[in-house]
Design a protein that fits this description.
alpha+beta, Protein Transport Mog1p, Chain A
């Protein structure tokens, strides 16, 4: 007789299906659950990152193992697969691992995303036992999540040629943008919960470029943001929307409908012109 496999669609269901023990490792103490307000009590420094991606709740469970080892499992319900993907792209340091839809391992920290969940496993001991347990538990959690989610549609609108592996970030918030590319202390692009942005680096024609593609709720908001960017970041732009920055690099911006494309920096002018035009054309078609 076959046993029906249990899956989780919500954080509460996932919590109820988590193993209480695996080998010598056993759940320790009570699970802790945090919301967007109390997340700062748990991870004060990074709490704002999860809030910027519309985090709903975080479940934290500790597993105790041999020789005083402790493994920490954090499961973030981000509310959508798009924002689970987004928070995963915030920190892309590490080596890819086949977990969930995308996974990374870096110096004892293992993370991945699947559906609307972002999962983090960490330990300080990094013994053979804890490393093995981390992998087993991560695979178990990934298996419990019923369906994969989808990447943001905006990602498919980016030009593919020359896109650098591991450089792609998906975001809504100007603070997150400034973490990866400092633009301004002010929110000159009018980013917010209703906007979607993709930031990526490219290598083209021997030049290194940083591209930002933003989708706004409507054309009026896109036009307002484009005007603000030209005023504050590219006041000396030419008719093609390209300007030379104080450090000698090139930058430019253009808009079509609800989409704004900005090459925030490029080591050469012509690749910036071409990438910006290609990004706008690609965004409109899809």
């Amino acid at each position: 007789m076959m046993t029906e496999r249990a899956f989780a669609d919500s954080l509460d269901e996932l919590r109820s299906l988590l193993p209480g023990s695996i080998g010598e490792w056993k759940a320790e103490g009570e699970d802790q659950v945090y919301d967007p307000r109390t997340i700062f009590d748990y991870i004060d420094g990074a709490g704002e990152v999860y809030r910027a991606y519309h985090m709903r709740r975080c479940l934290s469970r500790r597993y105790a193992g041999p020789k005083g080892g402790v493994l920490i499992l954090d499961i973030f319900d981000m509310g959508s697969s798009e924002d689970a993907y987004g928070v995963f792209t915030h920190d892309r340091e590490g080596n890819p691992v086949p977990l969930g839809q995308e996974g990374l391992y870096n110096a004892g920290w293992l993370c991945f995303w699947k559906d609307c969940f972002f999962i983090s496993l960490s330990d300080e001991s990094r013994t053979d036992s804890s490393e093995e347990m981390k992998g087993i538990l991560a695979r178990k959690v990934a298996e419990l999540i019923r369906e994969p989610g989808r990447q943001p549609v905006l990602i498919s609108r980016l030009p593919f040629q020359g896109l650098q592996n591991g450089s792609l970030r998906y975001l809504h918030d100007p603070v997150i943008l400034n973490t990866h590319f400092y633009l301004s202390d002010e929110n000159i692009l009018h980013l917010g919960s209703g906007t979607e942005a993709a930031l990526a680096t490219y290598e083209r024609m021997g030049a290194g470029l940083t591209l930002l593609l933003v989708q706004y709720p409507d054309e009026d908001k896109a036009a307002l943001a484009h005007g603000s960017l030209m005023k504050h970041y590219l006041p000396n732009a030419d008719r093609e929307g390209i300007a030379r920055l104080e450090d000698g690099k090139w930058a430019g911006s253009g808009r079509r409908g609800r989409f704004l494309a900005a090459v925030l920096e490029s080591s050469d002018r012509e690749p910036a012109v071409r990438l910006m035009a290609e990004a706008l054309e690609s965004a409109e078609k899809k």
